[in-house]
Amino acid sequence: MSDDTIIEILDRRAIEHDSGRVTAKGIWARRLGALSIPVVVLAGLLHRFGQLDTPTLIGSIALGCVIASAAILMAFATLVTVWRFGWKGLGDAGVGVVFAACVLAIPVYSAVIYFDKPMINDVTTDPLNPPDMPAAQAQRPPMSNPVHYNDALIAVQRIAYPEIVPLRAALAPPDVHPIVLDLVEEMDWQVIDARAPHDGIAGRVEAAAHSLLFGFANDVVIRIAYDGDRTVVDMRSRSRFGSHDLGANAKIIDSFLTELTTRLSVPGETGDSGGN
Hints:
This protein has helices spanning about 5-20, 25-50, 55-85, 90-115, 135-140, 155-160, 175-185, 250-265; strands at about 120-125, 165-170, 190-195, 205-210, 215-225, 230-240. The protein is α+β, with helices and mostly antiparallel strands and about 280 residues long. It has two domains: about 5-115; about 120-265, TATA-Binding Protein, CATH 3.30.310. Strands 1, 2, 3, 4, 5 and 6 form a six-stranded antiparallel sheet that branches. A hairpin with a 7-residue loop joins strand 3 (about 190-195) and strand 4 (about 205-210). Helix 2 packs across helix 4 (about 90-115) and helix 7 (about 175-185) packs across helix 8 (about 250-265). The termini are far apart. Residues about 10-15 and about 265-275 have low confidence and may be disordered.
């Protein structure tokens, strides 16, 4: 056997050996992608059940996204290695990408809504005389948004959410209050304070509404005021954290008043509220 033949055989065996190697980059892509999911899920569960504060949750989500991004980079590096040397590892890299995509879907979805909705974190049916939030003020955690209403939001809200207006009902406020309270409890909002209307003084219900997925809190107040023999219901929903609510506050008010209108069996009349 000639020297050239021996060299050719050795080269072929070396190539076959290399083609069977598994790149560690693919393994790390899978590991990092898998790690990103429990980082976000565990933080979300702890926050949902009140064991983790919101700033820490946001930091945990950011950490999970960083880990997921690293998994994507490792998957790309795996693709380059497989292309250049014929090593194995695309399967591991693919699994890592799937895991990472589940986590990165959160910021991508949030970014879409961020640019679609206005920069606002406080929505009310009565911007000129918004219901106050004394009970929420007393319970707000550190670093949360203040509860006072910013008049600069009036123009933003009127353009973005013209449908957010007071609800007027033919019933008297003392009859409307228990219906409002029942609906608040059915929506599984945490009631902070509730005062029935009496002797011309408006009633109110303050509650905390939590998002379904991560349990982000929005403080809500419902004012049940006298309007002669009728009732005018005003609402306000305020995000505890952040300058952008991603449309959550308007959705809270709209869904609540829509259901309340159905229960009161009145048309959704609108107009300026005369609440206190």
